[in-house]
């Protein structure tokens, strides 16, 4: 798989749409999508599971994963990176999650420790160079999403037996 620089991809995308690219104003031209993240670790620390739903203007894409010997915070960080890795073009993305630590750390309210989380934060920062990300904590998903795949996938993933 080959990648082209973000600016080149964005310019090509805007040119196809017949729009001019104004320096520093590219995010308003990006297509808008939403990412809903769900995850848990049972026990914490222990086996972790996550699922997500990417809501495009005309479709949805679900994903899920698991990790042994992890924490709730780490599994949610992995969920965010996994969701962003599925994107093939720049987007303005609203990210919704139940995990306050993830939202507050991504927004710079908590310091990022230089431990096992660091490679995932670095990956997230690389995605933030390409996408316009906004983070939102929510107690419950919006009505149009609630009851769809994020909750169901997380509930269906079985614990890994050791």
Can you walk me through this structure?
The chain is an alpha/beta fold and 162 residues long. Helix content is 33%, strand content 27%. A five-stranded mixed sheet has the order 3-2-1-4-5, sandwiched between helices. Strand 2 and strand 3 form a beta hairpin. The model is unreliable at 1-24 and 156-162 (pLDDT under 50).
Could you give the order of strands across the largest sheet? 3-2-1-4-5
The mean pLDDT is 76
Report the structural category.
Answer: alpha/beta
Q: What would you report as the Rg, rounded to the nearest angstrom?
A: 17 Å
Please specify the SSE layout and strand pairing.
Layout: H1 6-16, E1 32-42, E2 46-55, E3 60-70, H2 72-85, E4 92-97, H3 100-106, H4 118-130, E5 132-137, H5 149-156
Parallel strand pairs: 1-4, 4-5
Antiparallel strand pairs: 1-2, 2-3
Keywords for this entry:
5-stranded mixed β-sheet, disordered N terminus, globular, 162 residues, disordered C terminus, alpha/beta
Quick recap:
The chain is an alpha/beta fold and 162 residues long.
